User: Fold Putative SLACS reverse transcriptase from Trypanosoma cruzi.
Amino acid sequence: MPPHTRGQRRSGSTTASPASWASSWTAPSRSAHATLRPSRCAGEGAVSDGREIAEFAYACLGEKGKQRAMTDELDAKHQSDLYETLQGPDRKVFVSNTAAGAGRPLTDPQVHADDRGFSTYLRERLLVRVLPEGQKCVCGADASNEHVHTCTRLQQNPRTTRHDMINMTFANGLRLCGFQCGMEPRLTEASRRRPDILIVGLDTYAITDVTVTYAGRVTAYVSEESMEEADPLRAARDRLTQKTTKVPSLGPGQRAGL
Assistant:
């Protein structure tokens, strides 16, 4: 257990730390209930009332492709309605949840997560507060999900922690594929730039730089945009643009982007 976490337990402090994220379950909010509304994978889409289902099925009878089209339309309406009830970072997190693969940790058996990590992920996805109401960050601000993901005052900087975990996982995967990997190598003796991973194969090499962002960070969203205009990968694209200038001396053939 990190020293600052042990100190909090001894003193009874309510200061937030990454280790305490799965502390207690809070009742799902209205947005969480709406997020759980059945989707296309449930058959008749986001229709739950028996009469509605019957009317829905009758309307689609004998017309090829109409059920899928109506399901898509109904899903889009429910998403848009929920989007209108959200504000600020919650809007961008909700939009990012619609990106391809965003729900994979909930369904893919190859993704191994312990109970605490799974619980935290599920709360985040449902836009439910992870830490108890009233809990404060070390900087004194309210320890909301958005704040804990972006605060730079935490002893274990959340962004750095996530970056290092992804970096190590990616490097280990490359090693299993037979590549040699160097972590944060110097490009030259005089250079201070350190790409995250140097990948060496039989007759080629490449570097990759891991970047971690948060969909709800303040600079990533435009509050006026509609659900249809929102980009689920806006924050990731923004960080990628910043990272592509980090090592300008290498050509695109020598740079592997992540």
Q: What stands out?
A: The beta strands are 180-183, 197-200, 205-209, 255-257. The chain has ten helices and four strands. The CA atoms of residues 114 and 120 lie 10 Å apart. The first strand starts at residue 180 and ends at 183.
